[in-house]
Amino acid sequence: MIVLKFGGTSVGSVESIKQVINIIEQHRQEDTTFAVVLSAMSGVTNQLIEIGRMATNGNPDYLDLVRRIEDRHFNVIKALIPVKEQSKVVANIRGVINELEDLLRGVSLIRELTPRTLDLIMSFGERLSTAIVTECIKSRGIPAVFCDARQLIKTDTQFGQAEVNYTLTNQLIQDFFARNTSLQTGGIPLITGFIGSTEKNETTTLGRGGSDYTASIIGAALNAERIDIWTDVDGMMTADPRKVPNAFNIPSITYAEAMELSHFGAKVIYPPSLQPAFARNIPIQVLNTFNPTHTGTMVSRTAERRQYTITGISSIDDIALVNVQGSGMIGVAGVSAKLFGVLAANRISVILISQASSEHSICFAIDPRAAQQVKDILDTEFSVEMSHGHIDNISIERDLSIIATVGEGMKKSSGIAGKLFSVLGKNGVNIVAVAQGSSEINISVVINKNNLSKALNAIHNVFFQSEARILNLYLVGTGLIGSTLLRQICAQYEFLRSEKLLRVCLVGVSNTKKMLLDPKGVSLDDWRERLLTEGVTTSLPAFVEQIKYYNLPNSVFIDCTSDKDIVQFYELLLDANISVVTPNKVANSGSFAEYRRLQKTALNRGVKFLYETNVGAGLPIINTLQGLMTSGDRFLKIEAILSGTLSYIFNNFRSGTSFAAIVREAKEKGYTEPDPREDLSGMDVARKILILAREAGFPLEPDDVTIKNLLPEACTAAPTIPAFFQELENNNDYFESLLADAGSRNEKLRYVATLENEKVTIELRSVGPEHPFYMLSGSDNIVSFTTERYKDRPLVVKGPGAGAEVTASGVFADVVSIGSYLA
Ligand SMILES: NC(=O)c1ccc[n+]([C@@H]2O[C@H](COP(=O)([O-])OP(=O)(O)OC[C@H]3O[C@@H](n4cnc5c(N)ncnc54)[C@H](O)[C@@H]3O)[C@@H](O)[C@H]2O)c1
Ligand SMILES: N[C@@H](CCO)C(=O)O
Ligand code: NA
C-alpha cells in the first residue's frame, strides 16, 4: 500500500487536477493498492480564514469571497465532468457551500470566531477539493470513494493544532480500510487532508503541514510501503533556489537531515508532520506533479552514498540575537534554567543557543518581532541580579540571519567547520555567533543580514565541489591591456572551468565613456557590443557603489588604466572584501604610507591586492622578490633594466635612423605607457624601482629616487604628445651623439636602475660585452637580485618586459591565483 498526497497547487487548477488524475490512473495500472490524501485548492484555506474574520466583523463582503471559492470549484466541475453528470455534482457541492454559508451567518450574528468555529470553517477547503476530485475520477469510470478524515482521525480539543489520539485513530483507519466494501472491491479512497475531529465529533485541524500529517498518519496506521508527497517542485534542493541559483536537487536525504533543513525554512515539506511515518521507518518520496518523471527526493532512515560532505544549506533570514552576560553567571547553577524557563513560560521560541565554556555569557536567537518583549521580560526577571551587577544589561542585536549547513556526512569528519569559516572569512562575512549540536549534523552561524545572499552562495559554491567556483570580475579600462585580458580569459574559459573549477563571470566593465554592470554576467565575447549599446555614462564612484551593493562572493576588481584618480577607490574596495588586481603602478608608487595602507587593508580583510605586472609586465619579478622576503632573505643590491620601451629603443636605434620613429614603433607595438613621455622621462622606471625597493623592505618615498634625465630640456618641456614627438625629431643629433659615444667604446646604451645602500639611482649608461646587461633584445627587461643568499652570483630574471600579451597574461595569472585562493 502506498499513500499519495497532493498539495494545494496540485489541486489548484483544472490543468493541475488533470495531472493528478493522470498520476492516479497510472498508479492503478501499476497494480499497487493506494490511498490518496488531498489538500484544499491553493489559497482557499487562507481565503476561508479571511472570510471567517470578515463575518465576525459583520462585513457582508465575505459572501463575495464565498462566491469566488464556489466559482473556482464549479469551474473544475464544468471542465472535467461530462455535462450530463454535472448537475448532480453541482447540487452536492452547493449543499456543502450552503452549510458553510449557514455557519458564517451564525458567526456574523454572534460576532465571535472561536478557534473551534474557525477549524470548522477551514475544513471546507479540503472537503470541497476532495469531493470534486473524487467525482472527476468517478466520471472516468474509476471507482473512487470520498473519505471524510473526520471519521478516521480523532484528536483532542486543541483547535487549530489538535493532538492526535493515535490508539483510537489507528483503530478507526484500520477498521475502515478492512471493512469498507467499496475499497475491498478496488475503490480508491480519496481522503480529506488537514482535518480530524474530537471524540464529540467537533471538527479540528492538524496545524502546520496539515495534509502531509494526514498522509503520514494514514500511512503509519496502514504500515504503508511508501508515502509520496506530490508538490510543485522537484523535491528538496541543496539551498533555496531563489537565493542560490546554483542549488540543485537532493536525490536522497535522511529524516534527521530533512528535519534540520526544514527547520531553517526549506519549506518543501514540514518534517515534524511526517513523524508518524518516520517512527515506522516508512520512506517518503517528494515528487513534482508538474514534472512527474523527475525522481524528486527520497526521505528515509539512511541516505544513499553521497558525493558531498554536506547535504544542504538553509537559512532564517531575519532573527534577533539576545545576549545575557555577567560575572555573576560564572559557575552559578540555574541561571540558564531560569532564563529559558521564563522564555518558555512566555511561549518564546528559541531558535539557536550559544554559550561559551567561560559561562560568562549566553546568547540566543529569536524571532525579531519578539525581541522587545523578551528584553522587557528579562529586565524584570533578572532585575535583582542586574542591580547587584551580577548580570549586565541585556542587549539585543537585530538585522541578523542564521545559516545552517546540514548533513550526516559532517559527522566525525574534520575540517568542515574550518572550510565554512574560511569561506566566510575570505568573503568578509563576520560571524556573530555559532552553534553546533553534538549530533554534528548541523553547524549554524549567525551573520549580518546584508551578507546573507553572498554567504549562502559562497558556502554553496565551496561545499558542492564538482561545481566550478564562481569568480566575479569587475574590469575598469578596456584599452590595450584590458581588452587583451578579456580576450585571453574568453579563450581559456572552458579550461578554467573544467581544469581549475573556476567559472569566470564578468559582472562589470567600464571605459572612460561607458560602464555596464550585470550581476548575471556580461558575455566575454560580446562585452564590447553590449557596453556600447547598453552602457551608461561612466562614473567611477557609482561603479564602485554598485559593486558594494551587489556584495557578490569571490569578487575581483581589475584596474587596467593608468588613471591616478582610480587608486583612491582601492582601499574602499579592499575594505569591502573585494580583491584588487592591477598593472597600474600609481597606487604602489605614491607615498609609502599609502602603499602600506593598501597592504594592511588587504591583509586585515583576508583579500588579495596583486600587481605582478607593475614591474616587468608578466615576468615573475615581484613574486620572486616576495618569495625571497618571505623566506627571510635580505637584499643587498637590485640592478635592473625595467623599461620595455627604452630597452626596445636602444636595441633598435641605429645611426642614421630617426629616434622619434623608433619611439613611435615602441608605441605601436604596445610597449609604451598611454603617454610615452612617462617612459622617456624615466618616470615609469622610477615607479618600478621604487616598488621593488619597497617590496624589498626599504620604506622609500618618491623623492628618494634620483633620475638622471635622459632627455634634452626641450623634450621634457613639450606640452603635448605630438609636440613631444616633434622635439624628439628636432633633437635627433643629440640621440645620435649618445649612440656614437657608446659605439666608440664598443658599448651599448642601457637605462639602468640601481638600489644599493638604501639609495636608488636611475641613469643612462653604456655597458660593454662583459656586462650581463649587454645581451638584450626586443623589449627585454632584466633584474638582478643580489641578496644574502644570492651573494656570489645574483638571481636574474630576464625576458620581454612590455607588450599586450605578456602584460595581460600576468594580470590573468594574478586573477586566477585569487580564484584558487578564494576557492
Ligand atoms: N602596455 C604594457 O606593456 C604595460 C605593461 C605593464 C603595465 N602596464 C600598465 O597597464 C595599464 C594599462 O595600459 P594600456 O597599455 O592598456 O593603456 P591604454 O591606454 O591602452 O588603456 C588604458 C585605458 O584605460 C582607460 N581609462 C583611463 N582612466 C579610466 C577611468 N577612470 N575609467 C575607465 N577607463 C579609464 C583609457 O581610456 C584607456 O582606454 C597602465 O597602467 C600601464 O602602466 C602596461
Ligand atoms: N611602458 C612600460 C610597460 C611595462 O610596465 C614599459 O615600457 O616598460
Ligand atoms: Na612582473
TrEMBL record:
Entry annotated with the keyword Translocase: no
GO molecular function: kinase activity
Pfam family, one: ACT_9
Pathway: Amino-acid biosynthesis; L-lysine biosynthesis via DAP pathway; (S)-tetrahydrodipicolinate from L-aspartate: step 1/4; Amino-acid biosynthesis; L-threonine biosynthesis; L-threonine from L-aspartate: step 1/5; Amino-acid biosynthesis; L-threonine biosynthesis; L-threonine from L-aspartate: step 3/5; Amino-acid biosynthesis; L-methionine biosynthesis via de novo pathway; L-homoserine from L-aspartate: step 3/3
InterPro entries registered for this protein in UniProt: AceGlu_kinase-like_sf, ACT-like_dom_sf, ACT_Aspartokinase, ACT_dom, AK-HD, Asp/Glu/Uridylate_kinase, Asp/hSer_DH_NAD-bd, Asp_kinase
Swiss-Prot/TrEMBL catalytic activity: L-aspartate + ATP = 4-phospho-L-aspartate + ADP; L-homoserine + NADP(+) = L-aspartate 4-semialdehyde + NADPH + H(+)
Keyword line: Amino-acid biosynthesis, ATP-binding, Kinase, Lysine biosynthesis, Metal-binding, Methionine biosynthesis, Multifunctional enzyme, NAD, NADP, Nucleotide-binding, Oxidoreductase, Sodium, Threonine biosynthesis, Transferase
Keyword Transferase: yes
Residue stretches making up the ACT domain: 405-473
Cofactor: a metal cation
Quaternary structure note: Homotetramer.
Family per similarity comment: In the N-terminal section; belongs to the aspartokinase family.
Function: Bifunctional aspartate kinase and homoserine dehydrogenase that catalyzes the first and the third steps toward the synthesis of lysine, methionine and threonine from aspartate.
Protein name per the record: Bifunctional aspartate kinase/homoserine dehydrogenase I
Source species of the chain: Nibrella saemangeumensis
